[in-house]
Amino acid sequence: MYTFNEIIGYEDIKKHLQNSIEISKISHAYIIDGQKGMGKKLLANTFAKTLQCEKKEITPCDTCTSCLTFDSFNHPDIVYVKPSKKTIGVDDIRDQINRDINIKPYHYPYKIYIINEANTMTEQAQNALLKTIEEPPSYAVIILLSSNSNMFLPTILSRCVLLKLKPISSEKIMNYINQELNIPDYQAQLVTSFSQGIIGKAKELASSTDFFDMRENMISIVNVMLKDDEYELLNLSTKFDEYKDNIEDFLDLFLVWFRDLLIVKKIDDETYLINRDKYKTLLKQARVLSYNKISVIISNIRDAKRLLRQNSNFRLVIEMMILQTKEK
Ligand SMILES: [Zn+2]
Fold it and tell me: Is residue 59 within 8 Å of residue 5, measured between CB atoms?
């Protein structure tokens, strides 16, 4: 585990890291930035493992003592910085990095620090880290993992190599699902479009039956929505309660569904559908919906997503979204 070849996508970043190993130009500080599920830890770990590998090649050998110790999560010269609270405070940086970094590596060429969720560092913490990044010992490598690089002070950013992870292609995600996960074709298709280029999300969705149950629930909710019965509509909002914790995903399922309805309405070509396996249901629903109504519903769902992100009252937002679908 943890070799560069096994990492899907990010060719430019892998090349950059492997090149720097090859020509021995390792920076003292890196930021790996990307959304949850993109593989930040995987990249950081693979880079760290390669740097410490005794064979000194551009990917870990997986057989030397260093690689084996790494695989048992026990490497003496790789330090994982853990926050003591929800955010990384100045004491965390002082105790876990600044006070430790001048102690030479135990056995290996580098002393590597990996800071998970580094974007949660307080300003004081960042300033404390800055002192170390400005004058690090020659063997030190600090890797900051972040899901929002805007949170870093400009002084931190200017001292780090910033590696931004971008969504990987649907083709690569699809290949991965087909090779690694045993799910039917139509599910692979749905998972691929839903993962939005985030491999971790694809993995999570593909291995969860909940996702497909969730879609069935979404479809039954849409069926009720189309009846335009005010009483039934009002009762619908309780059906969203069980998805309170992953409401974004649930609403995205609706968005994708209504996008498919637009396509059925407009060009009626199955090949463009994401929910291709549900073509008959889509066709039936498209018949009773006007083009205009579909567009209105899509924008209502988008509004609801935005409001929920701003922490508006869950029940109110959902009720409003549902009631607005009623034809005026
Ligand atoms: Zn090795």
Answer: yes
The yes-or-no verdict on residue 122 having pLDDT over 90 is yes
End-to-end alpha carbon distance in the chain: 58
Q: How far is the CA of 61 from the centre of ligand 1 (A)?
A: 4
Claim to verify: residue 159 and residue 214 sit in the same structural domain: no
Q: Are 255 and 275 in contact (CB under 8 A)?
A: no
**Ligand 1 (ion): which residues have CB within 5 A?**
53, 61, 64, 67
Domain total in the chain:
2
User: pTM for the complete prediction?
Assistant: 0.82
In a domain, 111, yes or no: yes
In the reported structure, the alpha carbon of residue 67 is separated from the centroid of ligand 1 by a whole-number distance in angstroms of: 4
Rounded Cα gap, residues 128 and 125, in angstroms:
5
- The verdict on 212 and 139 lying in the same domain is no
If asked whether residues 131 and 250 sit together in one domain, one would say no
Cβ within 8 Å of residue 162, ≥6 positions away? 30, 31, 33, 149
Place 69 in a pLDDT band, splitting at 50, 70 and 90: very high
Residue 328 lies in a domain: no
